[in-house]
Amino acid sequence: MQIFSPVQPCLFQSLNISVKRDDLIDTYISGNKWRKLKYVLERVKAIKKNHLVTFGGAYSNHLLATAALAARHNLKSSAFVRGEKVENEMLMLCKLFGMDLIFTARDLYKNKNSLFDNYFGKNENCFFIDEGGASNEGVKGCAEIVKELPQHYDHIFCAAGTGTTAAGLLKGINAQGLSTTLNVIPVLKGGEFIEKEIENYENDLSKLQLHTNYHFGGYAKTTPQLIHFIQNFVGETGILIDPVYTAKMFYAIYDLAQQNYFKKDAKILALHTGGLFGILGMKDKFEQFLG
Question: In the structure, what pLDDT confidence band is assigned to residue 291 with cuts at 50, 70 and 90?
Fold first, then answer.
């Protein structure tokens, strides 16, 4: 199944950009989650596996996407969930889609290959999917985004957690010989490591630009400033964004524009990578701020 997402204009205050709406691909397997899993699914079917095993935190959009994908294709799914046992809306949805959850101490979680081998190593039907869908298949799927674009853009922006989506975009830009600058917004503190992650998949980094000062405290962290930005952005554009990934990216674009980072009339594209259920993990902070 081939899925394309639209590119839409977006005017926010004085900022006029285009947005690649990958969040519209699917409700549960949205954005870069579909991109990163589509070729994994193809490989799983080719080698006749029937059990997807993956990893993530308690509010992981990747877990939900994997659970939904497995259910739709008559596959089993299991996930190692980082940290103590909890119950929340995201994990409830995962369980509704049939996913078996294995809550795992944080020190043990660090060795994912060992966990997989200990629990599923003797089961030939199981297929290992790394956290966030990081893989060569994931990079391949994300590279296709560039081919779908209707015109040339001077700048493409994306948020980054594992760097897989960014690596795919860069690979697509280089493959087509474009002069586009890929601007990557790491959502974690110390996001400089993303460059090394990208380099695992794509050697030519000449068109890569990291902006590491927009993490707002780190992964799954937020501030009143960011929540205020989300409220204004969503209210003005009608495009829902999440505090973990896409809000940080859009804030970065807006802030860089205020610093005259872009040349006059530069064509700017933002990749909306979906993951909107991430809002649920911060609902208390939103309710406190919004009243």
Answer: low
Dist. CA 110–CA 23, nearest whole Å: 29
CB burial readout 250-269, b (16+ within 10 A) else e: bbbbbebbeeeebeeeebbb
What CATH number belongs to 33-133? Answer: 3.40.50.1100
Tokens of 100: 């078996």
pTM: 0.94
What pLDDT is recorded for position 234?
96
Burial environment of residue 205 by CB neighbours within 10 A (0 to 12, 13 to 18, 19 or more)? middle
The answer, yes or no, to whether residue 288 has pLDDT greater than 70, is: yes
The residue ranking higher by pLDDT, 279 or 180, is: 180
What tokens does 281 get? 């993990």
**Distances, alpha carbon 116 to alpha carbons 44, 52, 70, 126, 228, in Å:** 16, 11, 18, 9, 41
| 7-27+136-290 CATH fold | Rossmann fold (3.40.50)
Q: Does the pLDDT of residue 15 top 60, yes or no?
A: yes
Domain boundaries, the chain: 7-27+136-290, 33-133
Residue 114 region, left (φ>0) first, then alpha (ψ -120 to 50), else beta? alpha
